[in-house]
């Protein structure tokens, strides 16, 4: 069928012949594609918002810290306290599959002072440079702790954004200045960017002061003890596979019962990331089910209305056949009408959806939230192609019915 201006005008005339019916039919398709695209865009934005909380965090990481023992073993009573040691790092590092191993120690409730300004409830963290591989540091000014700081036990610190703003003000480079934290003077070597909303290990990074672990150990006289062991796996290894070997090595050295499940906490960050990923996949599947279900119901409505239209136009179709129109021409006309009606409604739905998502984006930007509620160009094109395909599908049954109308029977019925 040749699709020209006359053909389009004829289709438009047919659609507008019964405006209310056409409008209600088109609304079903409009609402279906609007729901699908909006839910997909909203899902993408929600995923981006959640993913920002994991930004810079090693997905194949794990954390170990000691707890009271739950079993008596080799003369030691149940319920005793024990401590991880720096020598455990060396032992765990020898286990196959383990990549980075480091540690963290913290001191809560400290107060930082600069001249007449204070920052209270600060967390002082003792860290090694390798911790940057566990939780990527967002350095806004200066640098993070390095190996020389560790070797020379320098009294330097890397401070969080909130601490810096309370001591020095907003957008001020604090590097080189001396602050007093928990009664000890440290020179600021760097400041972190905004980490609000991110996963926090042992306190908020915005409210923390990180110092070299060697300096922390000497200042607070902790000896070889560590509070938290942090590690990542090599490529191709899963935390769940290596976890039993880590627990076995630690338990054997510290004389802990091999079957004691309470003596240490093992946080598998990889499992948490996997759970979140599965959640997003389930949400995505649910979005497709809801959106497609609504869209298909709208397309069924188009098909039913086209069937009614064909019945009403039986005489017209019969006359067309009588003056030479072929069955194929009749079929193409009905299919085209169905596709045009569906396509107009679908494109209106996509356009309105993009508008709503853009309004949501503007609201998020004003709240400084990193969400990105939008649909990709490929998704929009895919939605348009799907609408066209469904429009053709909706017109197949009415088109076959129209094609089988006999001219003489159509005129006799009239």
UniProtKB/TrEMBL annotation:
Localization per record: Cell membrane
A single GO molecular-function term is: transmembrane transporter activity
| Predominant cellular place of this UniProt entry's protein | membrane
GO CC term, one of those recorded: plasma membrane
> What Pfam families does this protein map onto?
FtsX, MacB_PCD
Membrane spanning residue stretches: 23-43, 285-310, 338-357, 377-400
Give the highest taxon in the source lineage: Bacteria
Keyword Cell membrane in annotation? yes
The entry sums up its family as follows: Belongs to the ABC-4 integral membrane protein family.
In Swiss-Prot or TrEMBL terms, this protein is called: ABC transporter permease
What is the protein's species of origin? Prevotella heparinolytica
């Amino acid at each position: 069928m040749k699709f020209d201006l006359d053909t389009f005008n004829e289709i438009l005339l047919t659609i507008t012949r019964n405006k209310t019916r056409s409008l209600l039919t088109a609304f079903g398709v409009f609402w279906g594609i609007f729901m699908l695209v909006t839910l997909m865009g909203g899902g993408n934005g929600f995923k981006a918002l959640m993913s920002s909380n994991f930004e810079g965090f090693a997905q194949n990481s794990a954390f170990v810290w000691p707890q009271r023992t739950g079993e008596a073993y080799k003369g030691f009573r149940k319920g005793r306290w024990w401590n991880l040691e720096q020598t455990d790092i060396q032992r765990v590092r020898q286990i196959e599959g383990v990549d980075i191993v480091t540690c963290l120690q913290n001191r809560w409730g400290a107060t930082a002072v600069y001249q007449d300004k204070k920052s209270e409830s600060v967390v002082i963290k003792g860290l090694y440079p390798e911790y940057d591989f566990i939780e990527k540091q967002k350095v806004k000014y200066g640098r993070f702790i390095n190996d020389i700081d560790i070797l020379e036990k320098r009294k330097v610190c890397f401070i969080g954004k909130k601490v810096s703003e309370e001591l020095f003000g907003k957008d001020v480079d604090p590097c080189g200045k001396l602050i007093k934290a928990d009664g000890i003077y440290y020179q600021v070597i760097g400041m972190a960017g905004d980490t609000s909303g991110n996963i926090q290990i042992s306190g908020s990074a915005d409210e923390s002061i990180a110092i070299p672990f060697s300096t922390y150990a000497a200042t607070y006289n902790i000896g070889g003890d560590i509070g938290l062991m942090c590690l990542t796996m090599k490529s191709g290894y899963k935390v769940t596979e290596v976890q039993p070997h880590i627990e076995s090595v630690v338990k054997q050295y510290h004389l802990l019962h091999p079957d004691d499940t309470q003596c240490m906490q093992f946080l598998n960050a990889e499992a948490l990331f996997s759970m979140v990923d599965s959640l997003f996949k389930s949400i995505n599947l649910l979005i497709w089910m809801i959106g497609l279900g609504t869209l298909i119901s709208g397309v069924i409505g188009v098909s039913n209305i086209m069937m009614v239209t064909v019945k009403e136009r039986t005489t017209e179709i019969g006359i067309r056949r009588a003056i030479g129109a072929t069955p194929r021409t009749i079929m193409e006309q009905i299919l085209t009408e169905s596709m045009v009606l569906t396509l107009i409604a679908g494109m209106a739905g996509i356009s309105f959806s993009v508008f709503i998502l853009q309004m949501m984006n503007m609201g998020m930007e004003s709240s400084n939230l990193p969400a990105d509620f939008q649909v990709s160009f490929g998704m929009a094109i895919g939605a348009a192609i799907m609408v066209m395909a469904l429009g053709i599908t909706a017109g197949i049954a009415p088109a076959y019915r129209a094609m089988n109308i006999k001219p003489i029977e159509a005129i006799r019925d009239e």
